[in-house]
């Protein structure tokens, strides 16, 4: 129920804001607005305010603003100057662009609200990089806490990991060197230069262009500590004497700062005996155990223990002025990242599996709502950016397609013929329908999991 309510509320808010942008711009331009509808199909509620009918319809997956237009029906001579088609190309473009811009403004406000409310985010403490990666060559060590990020002469303070990730991704995509100022326990602040100039190969078809390229640099968040939360009574861990609450510090003398490192050590053992150094309360202890195969069909090993722990986090809050600046910055960064990802999908450098449809949106809405208001508002902001950017794409039936018509009209001093627009609209509908089919396929593929 929470997932359904969170999904419907999200769609309702984003569509209402988008269409309200069109509506207010139309009123400003002196265009007569006949209907403002949230949803499609049969009206559930409707009321009239002035000359505009406001409607909440049955299918809550979109909306529209119907304006007086001579191309859609007869217009009384007294209303000619209030028809949309009679307005200058500048006014028409403003009315069209106002919808997506309203979504981007909403995203900015929501990101700012999240910054003011505050949200717990993982501290930017780096995990041990894989050998040979950019991070390894730069001297990154497990436990390095990033204090500042420097690029092109600009210094950005880093409070949490979530703030560092987009900065790193943009630098990786731009293939430019950056500096990280890191703190190490018992040492002075150290500056590390990460050279992304020619270090990351282009993403291969079928891979996640953003995530894969960042992972390939070796820069990663240090995971939860390798703490035992439970043991299987007959498992290797229990036989060796490990108990719930024990913290594993090292395997065969090599430190394991987090769960990831411990799991890698277990898999690398290939079933050979391992010496675990663990901390129980304030006492250190050594135990020897041997991992056993998870099953007969996969080369996976386990020790019969549940591992878990909390990643160090910080409550990140900002004053309203700084929060607004962060809202603008995050919206701009996310919009650019969305455009670049879409571009890579078009040319085949990013997989179509990144497209998500209503099922994925509903799933993320429910999960974020369960985490609290700050997470849910952040989700709404991300979705609002996506809606705004997608609507600005130069595809017929989208706002960006109409803007393209108006750009041609402004240059040629002649409007695009109606029959040409109709043909292009049909082609645009086909493209949108194909995108929806792919998105729904991806939704159900994620829902059902891989086929075996």
Could you give a quick summary of the protein structure above?
By secondary structure, this protein is an alpha+beta fold. It has helices at 2-29, 89-117, 134-138, 161-174, 209-216, 236-240, 259-269, 320-346, 358-371, 373-391, 399-412, 418-448; strands spanning 33-49, 52-67, 119-122, 145-151, 154-157, 177-183, 190-195, 227-231, 247-251, 254-255, 273-280, 283-290, 292-293, 301-302, 305-308, 313-316.
Alpha-beta content class: alpha+beta
Cross-sheet strand order for the largest sheet: 5-4-6-7
Number of domains: 3
- What is the end-to-end distance? 31 Å
**Contiguous uncertain segments of 5+ residues:** 201-212
Rounded mean pLDDT is 86
Helix segment tally? 12
What summary fits the major beta sheet?
A: 4 strands, antiparallel
User: What's the alpha carbon Rg, rounded to whole Å?
Assistant: 27 Å
Structural summary, described in words:
With about 450 residues, this protein is α+β, with helices and mostly antiparallel strands. It contains twelve helices and 16 strands. It has helices at about 1-30, 90-115, 135-140, 160-175, 210-215, 235-240, 260-270, 320-345, 360-370, 375-390, 400-410, 420-450, and strands spanning about 35-50, 50-65, 120, 145-150, 155, 175-185, 190-195, 225-230, 245-250, 255, 275-280, 285-290, 290-295, 300, 305-310, 315. Strands 5-4-6-7 form a four-stranded antiparallel sheet. The chain has a four-stranded antiparallel sheet with strand order 10-9-11-12. A hairpin with a 2-residue loop joins strand 1 (about 35-50) and strand 2 (about 50-65). The longest helix is centred in the last third of the chain and has 31 residues, at about 420-450. The radius of gyration is 27 Å and the shape is elongated. The chain starts with a helix and ends with a helix.
């Amino acid at each position: 129920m929470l997932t359904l309510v969170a999904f419907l509320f999200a769609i309702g808010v984003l569509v209402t804001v988008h269409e309200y942008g069109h509506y207010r711009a139309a009123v400003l331009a002196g265009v007569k607005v006949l209907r403002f509808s949230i949803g499609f199909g049969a009206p559930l509620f409707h009321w009239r305010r002035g000359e505009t009918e406001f409607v909440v319809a049955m299918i809550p997956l979109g909306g529209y603003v119907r304006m007086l237009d001579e191309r859609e029906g007869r217009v009384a001579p007294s209303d000619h100057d209030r028809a949309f088609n009679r307005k200058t190309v500048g006014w028409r473009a403003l009315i069209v662009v106002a919808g997506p811009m309203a979504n981007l403004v909403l995203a900015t406000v929501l990101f700012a609200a999240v910054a003011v409310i505050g949200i717990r985010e993982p501290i930017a403490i780096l995990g041990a990089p894989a050998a040979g990666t950019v991070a390894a060559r730069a001297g990154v060590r497990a436990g390095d806490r990033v204090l500042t990020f420097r690029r092109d002469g600009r210094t950005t303070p880093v409070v949490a990991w979530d703030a560092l990730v987009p900065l790193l991704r943009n630098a990786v995509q731009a293939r430019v060197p950056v500096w990280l100022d890191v703190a190490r326990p018992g040492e002075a602040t150290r500056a590390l230069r990460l050279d992304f100039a020619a270090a990351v190969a282009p993403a291969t078809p079928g891979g996640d262009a953003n995530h894969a390229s960042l992972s390939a640099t070796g820069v990663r968040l240090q995971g939860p500590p390798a703490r035992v939360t439970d043991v299987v009574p007959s498992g290797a861990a229990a036989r060796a004497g490990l108990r719930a609450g024990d913290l594993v510090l090292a395997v065969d003398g090599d430190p394991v700062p987090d769960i990831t490192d411990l799991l890698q050590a277990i898999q690398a053992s290939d079933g050979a005996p391992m010496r675990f150094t663990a901390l129980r309360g304030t006492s250190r202890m050594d135990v020897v155990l041997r991992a056993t195969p998870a099953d007969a069909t996969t080369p996976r090993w386990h020790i019969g223990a549940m591992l878990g722990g909390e990643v160090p986090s910080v409550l990140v809050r900002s004053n309203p002025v700084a929060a607004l600046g962060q809202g603008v910055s995050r919206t701009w960064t996310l919009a650019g990242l969305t455009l670049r990802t879409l571009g890579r999908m078009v040319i085949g450098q990013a997989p179509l599996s990144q497209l998500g449809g209503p099922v994925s949106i509903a799933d993320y809405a429910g999960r974020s709502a369960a985490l609290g208001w700050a997470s849910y508002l952040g989700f709404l902001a991300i979705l609002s950016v996506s809606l705004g950017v997608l609507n600005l794409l130069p595809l017929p039936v989208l706002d960006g397609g109409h803007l393209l018509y108006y750009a041609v009209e402004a240059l040629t001093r002649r409007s695009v013929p109606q029959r040409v627009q109709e043909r292009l609209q049909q082609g645009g509908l086909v493209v949108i329908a194909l995108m929806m089919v792919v998105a729904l396929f991806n939704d159900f593929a994620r829902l059902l999991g891989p086929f075996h």
